[in-house]
Design brief:
alpha+beta; Pdz3 Domain; 2-enoyl-CoA Hydratase, Chain A, domain 1; 4 domains; 6-stranded antiparallel sheet; 6-stranded mixed sheet; 20 helices; 19% strand; globular
């Protein structure tokens, strides 16, 4: 009797065992598979069924893989503005910027008139060793034409980058020569720098500009601080303007360098992610130095983590304009074909509890993408009173009021000065004509310009060359009508923009930064803060708004 009863329940027990096995397997696959995704085709999966139906019965032949590639970004865009899909062919480009190096030929280039122009050759890099110089035009790669309408930045990087120690044959036209010179370049490791400028603003004030937060940003910062220490700096300005962010760990390491032990730097929390606090360990070597952080609407993510940590702990003064407002945490998850998604799993919060992320509507990114333009039109770039805070007020460590709901609002606001901006200047800038003119001028006068070895010497030479007049004639030939009164009013702005690009083309990003900083209102405000000894702790103070026109 018992044997019959056991036999009767055996199918049921086996079915239960199978279901339990599936559930356990699914649990372990979901929770212990690291950062790799395993896509399992299932009969109950609606998307898989749809693709199978299309593949089997659609009237025309369809590449299902292409459909998937196009569908993935659309699906993720329904979640939030920062969950993204990156195809396998775009992975290298997406990751190179934050890694410490990549393998390539070692040049900076620009594409002009359907031709790749070598703008700078990286010192001691593969191209310099092979004999390339700035101003060369690459017209052949591995004996194949490399010009025309199809030439893009992405195609150029795809053809020029490659595994270390592989060779690439480049056909070069130099100066005004008509014959092609051939060079064989052996690809090598090319360092990518996060810290793009380190110098002394004055006898006491050190300045460091950080472009992004990558794998090597923290050690680069320590090297920059050591350099400034040798020059006797007593104050420090860290420029994060235009810094779109990067790795959380790099921002935490840098904040740790300036905070006493036990201070909260940032915390993250999500629906499936329990709260994780990041605190200072007290080992930082610069816990007492007066500190200013410069931000603007281009400062995002890790930049906002660093600025928020300094502000909420009353450790320094934040100067500039309200930051971007990107406070969503993405986790990279790779597919077997080399593609990847970056899925939002949590949010960043500053020590006071502010959520850095600005508002967004799931599935509708239009307003989010146009937010900066809306800020500009609303007047926020020019007047502190125009800032719209969407979140509640919070308190810093010593009780100062700060606001959440989208970005970091600076302690001292510095608006854009539009006094001498005219419609002619706007057209010249936005059309790209100034960049084009500066590059053509540099290319045509490279031999003469190379005689000057500092940006100050080069600037002195350029101011005698009537650059604005030369540009106005160039622009008129290229479709921008001459407006003499407007040119006169915007003369200084035009001259400085043109000169800055020539200096960048001939020298380095650091030389360019030093030059543009000489009349930067935020830099002048920084120097004033240090002179008044109000950078430590942060002292809230409202600046008079710049005159706008």
């Amino acid at each position: 009797m018992n044997e019959k009863k056991n036999n009767r329940f055996m199918p049921f027990l086996m079915a239960v065992s199978v279901v339990v096995g599936i559930l356990i397997g699914t649990f372990y696959a979901n929770h212990f598979s690291g950062n790799r995704l395993s896509i399992i085709n299932s009969g109950s999966n609606k998307l898989n069924n749809l693709l199978r139906l299309v593949d089997d019965q659609y009237v025309d032949t369809v590449n299902v893989n292409d459909l998937v590639e196009k569908a993935m970004p659309q699906i993720l865009s329904e979640l939030d503005p920062h969950s993204v899909y990156i195809g396998a062919k775009d992975m290298q480009i997406a990751n190179d910027d934050l890694k410490g190096s990549f393998s390539g030929v070692g040049i900076e280039f620009t594409i002009r008139h359907d031709t790749l122009h070598v703008q700078n050759v990286i010192k001691n890099g593969p191209s310099e060793r092979a004999g390339l110089i700035a101003g060369d035009k690459i017209v052949m790669v591995d004996d194949q034409p490399f010009t025309g309408k199809t030439l893009t930045n992405e195609e150029a990087m795809h053809r020029l980058k490659g595994p270390k120690d592989t060779k690439v044959k480049l056909g070069i036209i130099r100066n005004k020569e008509k014959t092609i010179r051939n060079f064989v370049v052996t690809r090598g490791d090319i360092p990518t720098r996060s810290v793009t400028a380190t110098y002394m603003l004055d006898n006491k004030t050190g300045y460091i500009r950080i472009r992004n937060f990558g794998e090597n940003t923290y050690p680069e910062l320590l090297i920059a601080l050591a350099k400034l220490s040798q020059e006797g700096f007593e104050n420090l300005a860290i420029d994060l303007r235009g810094n779109t962010g990067g790795y959380l760990e790099s921002a935490v390491q840098i904040a740790n360098e300036f905070l006493p032990k036990g201070q909260l730097i940032v915390y993250t929390q999500g629906r499936k992610q329990s709260r994780q606090d990041y605190r200072s360990d007290g080992r930082g070597s610069y816990q007492q130095i007066p500190l200013v952080i410069l931000i603007d609407e281009g400062s995002a993510s890790a930049s906002e983590i660093l600025a928020g940590a300094i502000q909420d702990n009353d450790r320094g003064t934040i100067i500039g304009r309200r930051s971007f407002g990107k406070g969503l945490v993405q986790k990279p998850m790779a597919f077997n074909d080399g593609s990847m998604i970056r899925l939002t799993i949590a949010r960043y919060y500053t020590p006071s509890g502010r959520c850095i992320q600005k508002p967004y509507v799931s599935g509708d990114n239009k307003d989010y993408e146009e937010d900066l333009m809306a800020r500009y039109q609303h007047g926020e770039f020019f007047s502190q009173d125009s800032i719209k805070h969407t979140g509640p007020a919070y308190k810093t460590r010593i009780g100062r009021e700060v606001f959440g709901g989208g970005g970091i609002t600076p302690d001292i606001f510095v608006g854009e000065d539009t006094t001498d901006v005219t419609s002619y200047y706007k057209q010249a800038s936005m059309s790209g004509l100034i960049l084009q003119f500066a590059f053509d001028y540099t290319d045509n006068n490279r031999q003469k310009l190379s005689e000057y070895h500092s940006w100050k010497e080069l600037e002195k030479y350029l101011t005698k060359q009537n650059m604005v007049e030369k540009f106005a004639s160039y622009a008129e030939k290229n479709g921008l009508k001459r407006r003499n009164l407007m040119i006169q009013r915007s003369h200084l702005l035009l001259e400085r923009y043109i000169n800055s690009r020539v200096i960048y083309n001939m020298m380095s990003e650091e030389a360019w930064v030093e030059y543009i900083n000489t009349d930067d209102p935020a830099i002048k405000e920084t120097e004033k803060v240090f002179k008044d000894q109000k950078a430590f702790p942060a002292a809230p103070r409202k600046q008079e708004n710049k005159k706008a026109a």
